[in-house]
Amino acid sequence: MNNDDILNHLRSIDDPQNGQSIIDNRLVSDVEVGDNNISFKLGNNGWSPEAKTSVYAACMQVLQKAYGDDIDIHIHFVQIDPSNQANSAYPHIKNIIAVASGKGGVGKSTVSVNLALALRALGAKVGLIDADLYGPSIPTMFGLQGQRPKMKDLHGTPKLLPLEKYGLSLISIGFIVEPEQAIVLRGPRLGGIIKQFMNDVIWPDLDYLIIDLPPGTGDIQLTLVQTVPLTGVVMVTTPQEVAVADAIKAMNMFLLPQINVPILGVVENMSWFTPKELPDNKYYLFGEGGGKSLATMSQSVLLGQIPLVQGIREGGDSGAPVMVQNDDTLQTPWLATAGKLAEQVLIRNEKLPPSRKVEMNV
Ligand SMILES: Nc1ncnc2c1ncn2[C@@H]1O[C@H](COP(=O)(O)OP(=O)(O)OP(=O)(O)O)[C@@H](O)[C@H]1O
Ligand SMILES: [Mg+2]
Residue 39 gets which letter from DSSP? Predict the structure, then answer.
């Protein structure tokens, strides 16, 4: 019976807050071992009284099973200092990145999905939230229409397990309600769903959690920044001036002093058209320069330019995005963009303090 041994036994117990081990969440401290007694401190990570009782009972049970019923066990609950842990509710999710745009249809979902897959291809652990509650597209893009997430009971609270496909962990309103029902969701319920996607889903350890937003600056964006400590935002635009004008409006919401979420960079989508049979030709159908000028205006960088090609649209519609197909030429720009995004996240995390949820009265 020694400290390591005890920690190993307690490792099997989940934090009701997020399904991670109480040890990995660093909630156990000051372990003391005597001849016939064990005592330690257990941080209460915002648990309900029921969850607290259940964790207590689980700790007693594993230790008594390991060391016998006669052992004297003292568990002291302590409050954890939330100001000390910027990401305290999600310590196992390193970076949370929202993908936003001004206009609809510029390719946010396409960018979210293929960037997530490209980050995964570069070796990262990645999750994806479809926060477009009115028009979820993740189920179709992954060929998961009609699938439902599994439930897991966590100390008396039912939680959702994300769906897994192509190495990503995924959640979408489309996995929970029928598409035609999503349309009746309004303000407070929308906010509730975003909160549930973070708090009632058991996310695995992730390097990046990507959030695919609906267009513009609505309730969902506002709720998101108040619910989730965002690492930053990726803006998507097409090259023409009108798209950029709308993107600036959307971007300005994130840059408001009371919100203050960093812009990690800009992805210019549909930068040029390249027909399959003429792979070296570029036709600038939507003009040029939008991505660059948005990056300059946000004092961020152009992460990449993605051509308009038939394979990208087909991949999205068929449930097999280009990043999981066998076409290097189509994957190259996504991999380059993902690499640049990872670099900007590193720079951001060195320069700025950890992200926090935005506190505001709206
Ligand atoms: N680079 C591209 N090449 C070809 N087709 C593309 C490209 N990017 C997006 N598309 C297609 O354009 C359409 C709109 O893209 P997408 O759904 O990703 O946009 P969105 O910004 O998420 O739209 P919404 O605002 O409705 O959420 C889709 O059919 C998608 O397959
Ligand atoms: Mg979309």
Answer: E
Average pLDDT, stretch 127-148?
93
30 in a domain, yes or no?
yes
Alpha-carbon distance of 270 to 287, in angstroms, equals: 10
Nearest atom in ligand 1 to 269's CA: 1
The range of the structural domain enclosing residue 101 comes to: 93-351
Structurally, the chain folds into a number of domains equal to 2
Atom of ligand 1 nearest to the CA of 103: 25
Q: What's the CATH number where 70 sits?
A: 3.30.300.130
**Do 210 and 240 sit in the same domain of this protein?**
yes
pLDDT digits (tens, 9 = 90+) for 276-310: 888 889 999 999 999 999 999 999 999 999 999 99
Determine the pLDDT at residue 82: 57
Entry pTM: 0.85
Residue 259, both tokens: 């919100």
The number of the ligand 1 atom at minimal distance from the alpha carbon of 313 is 31
- Which residue(s) pair with 14 in the sheet? 21
Contact assessment for residue 208 and residue 116, using Cβ atoms and an 8 Å cutoff: yes
Residue 308 CB less than 6 A away from ligand 1:
yes
- The ligand whose atoms approach the alpha carbon of 215 most closely is 1
Gap between the Cα atoms of 316 and 331, Å rounded: 14
Do 26 and 109 belong together in one domain? no
In terms of domains, do 51 and 120 share one? no
Q: Looking at the predicted structure, is the pLDDT value of residue 55 above 80?
A: yes
The response to whether residue 101 sits with its C-beta less than 6 Å from ligand 1 reads yes
Distance 173 CA to ligand 1 centre (A): 19
